[in-house]
Design a protein that fits this description.
Strands 1-5-6-11-10-9-7-8 form an 8-stranded mixed beta sheet, sandwiched between helices. It is 38% helix and 21% strand. The protein is of the alpha+beta class and 421 residues long. Bound molecules: adenosine monophosphate. The site of adenosine monophosphate has 16 residues, from strand 6, strand 10, strand 11 and helix 12.
Length: 421
């Protein structure tokens, strides 16, 4: 029996992982430039966290969660996103009591039982950041700027930032009521999804891609007409800050995002040539979430970027990340009784900061040279019985072909001076 990965999950193999590491490195670097610290939370949580945090009317909670009953009859769920987990951690560890503001970033796998296709998996990865404890437009602008910087630093240019405001919870509630009133007479003409959403999450009808819904969505009431003065002023300040940072954006008053916890600012980064799964990431403000999870009222704003989609966008733009050599030095050990000497030489190289391997298959010299080239080695170090007896190493610098016999203890320094590391 050959067992394979589960549908919608993927191995990331050597050859691909270098690209992932480059993406993680860029994300980590940008997050630290913005003053964010990493947080790692468990991959599975008490199911109630997501029911409460994300909301039962959302697609994620309604149909996509991997939920199972543990042996002690507790219901647990593989995390479908991180914001709820972070809010839980902030409450559980009183993070906002030690500092008024928490700036947190994460990278890790998320799980949603969606129909797999290119750019949509059941286990996928997100890089994201959350800024908790501040309810001012500059916090929203900082978070959007970080998301934008990550995408830009990865070399992705074919991307559009869409932003919108959902207004305060009160404005959102008034708008929701107006949508129900507007859509209800057309109920039977709407798509099945939208009929369901009319009862559970009417704002999501605006997200519908169904042609049946298009004419009704087109004439639906506009959210911006329901904004109170405070919400409108907040929104204008966020836009002004993005202008000041020269971050280009388009205002999309149909952008609502799927989750219940958002209010005020919401945004998405859309890959402009990515087809059906074009959202590279998105986020927004969630001022009620921490309180809903039992903490003191604490505002928050954050985003998540999908790593798989970032990689697809980079591929589409032919962004080539730096691929580092898999070994700087290859030690070619020939004949019997050279293994101990060679392994000690490998240790010497590694202590000097050079990655080094030897051929553990005891192949011919020619085969070992071929392997050195395949690994991108800059130097090889040939060890036979003579070198062992003399306490030396024959070091060949591959770029120049120059070969020198040096004392064992000087081998690493010789390679370093020749290849300039
Ligand atoms: P969301 O939390 O749904 O707003 O997702 C944020 C980002 O995560 C999306 O824009 C995608 O880039 C990525 N993402 C969400 N769901 C999936 C999935 N099933 N497969 C791959 N990426 C996903």
């Amino acid at each position: 029996m050959r067992i394979q990965t589960i549908r919608g999950t993927h191995d990331i193999l050597p050859g691909e992982i270098e690209l992932w590491q480059a993406v993680e490195e860029v994300a980590r670097r940008q997050a630290s430039l913005y003053g964010f610290s990493e947080i790692r939370t468990p991959v599975f949580e008490d199911t109630r966290l997501f029911l409460r945090g994300i909301g039962e009317s959302t697609d994620i909670v309604g149909k996509e969660m991997y939920t199972f009953t543990d042996k002690n009859d507790e219901s647990v769920t593989l995390r479908p996103e991180m914001t709820a987990s972070i809010a839980r951690a902030v409450v559980q560890h009183s993070l906002l009591e030690q500092n008024p503001v928490a700036r947190l970033w994460y990278f890790g796998p998320m799980f949603r039982r969606e129909r797999p296709q290119k750019g949509r998996q059941r286990q996928f990865h997100q890089f994201g950041a959350e800024l908790l404890g501040a309810r001012n437009p500059e916090a929203d602008a900082e978070v959007i700027a970080l998301a934008w910087s990550v995408v830009a630093s990865l070399g992705i240019t074919r991307v559009r930032l869409e932003i919108n405001t959902l207004g305060s919870q009160a404005a959102r509630a008034a708008y929701r009521a107006a949508l129900v009133e507007y859509f209800t007479p057309h109920r039977e003409e709407l798509s099945e999804d939208s009929r369901n959403r009319l009862d559970t999450n009417p704002l999501r009808i605006l997200d519908s891609k169904s042609p049946a819904d298009a004419p009704f969505v087109e004439r639906a009431p506009r959210l911006h007409d329901f904004l109170d003065d405070e919400s409108r002023s907040y929104w204008q300040q966020v836009c002004a800050l993005l202008d000041a940072l020269e971050i280009p954006y388009t205002v999309s008053d149909r952008l609502v995002r799927g989750l219940d916890y958002y209010e005020h600012t919401v945004f998405e980064l859309i890959g402009t040539e990515l087809g059906a799964q074009a959202a590279l990431g998105g986020g927004g403000r969630y001022d009620g979430l921490v309180e809903q999870l039992g903490g003191k009222p604490s505002p928050g704003v954050g985003f998540a970027l999908g790593a798989e989609r970032l990689l697809i966008a980079m591929e589409a733009e032919k962004v080539v990340p730096p691929v580092s050599a898999r070994a700087d030095v290859m030690v070619i050990a020939l004949g019997d009784d050279t293994a101990a000497y060679s392994l000690r030489l490998l240790s010497l190289f590694r202590r000097a900061g050079l990655s080094a391997v030897s051929d553990v298959q005891r192949r011919s010299m020619k085969a070992q040279f071929r392997e050195a080239n395949r690994l991108g080695a800059k130097a090889v170090c040939i060890i036979g019985a003579d070198e062992v007896a003399a306490g030396t190493a024959a070091v060949k610098i591959l770029a120049t072909g120059e070969q020198t016999t040096v004392a064992f203890a000087h081998a690493a320094a010789h390679v370093l001076s020749a290849v300039g590391q």
